[in-house]
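Notes from the 1:1 (GR / supervisor)

We went over the backlog. Supervisor wanted to see one worked example end to end before approving the batch request, so GR pasted a single chain during the call. The sequence is below; no edits were made to it. Supervisor asked that the structure be written out right there so they could see what the output format looks like.
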Amino acid sequence: MRWFIAALSLITCLMPWRAGFGQELSPDALAAALTARTPGATLERLQGNPQAFIEEAAGLILGYGQGGALTADQIETAIAAELSRLRARELRRLLEADLDNDLNVTRAERDVQIAAASATMRGRLLIWHRAADANRDGTATWAEMRAHAQARSEAGLSARARAGMRAMLVFDLDGDGRVVLDEVLEAVDALDGGV
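Structure output shown during the call:
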């Protein structure tokens, strides 16, 4: 019985607004439906700073969508691209010390990088290199650096942040499987006025 209730709840959540009701919703009804359907963290971000939320949505839709619309697959691409950017940043920080280009960073190479760094950066560099050297043998290998960069990228784009990106589909008001900026603007207007 629990699985039936859970499935029914999921279907209700995924049901498009207008297609599900067969008509336009009043602003109050739309606000109530959006409030019920939007994940708490997303709703808090939207209500806390509507303009920043709109800008984030616009960046996601226009940056990764196609034809001014964003699909679930394109959100996953955006997530993968952000994780890739974070991994590359972490690898760059470590590989700047790879003086002999062998994809391994020894203590001696690390120490050259640290000596040339600013005072505030020295501690960070030491910590990053120590964290990457998983087996503590004094050399951060390519495999260790990749694993370190992967872990740091996942920490940099938390599960909550990824869920927030995926929650953008809540604003697919016409149920076509795509979110456009006008739908986000309509939802923000409904929620901002309905709060």
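Supervisor's comment: Residues 80-156 form a domain with the Recoverin; domain 1 fold (CATH 1.10.238).
Batch request approved.
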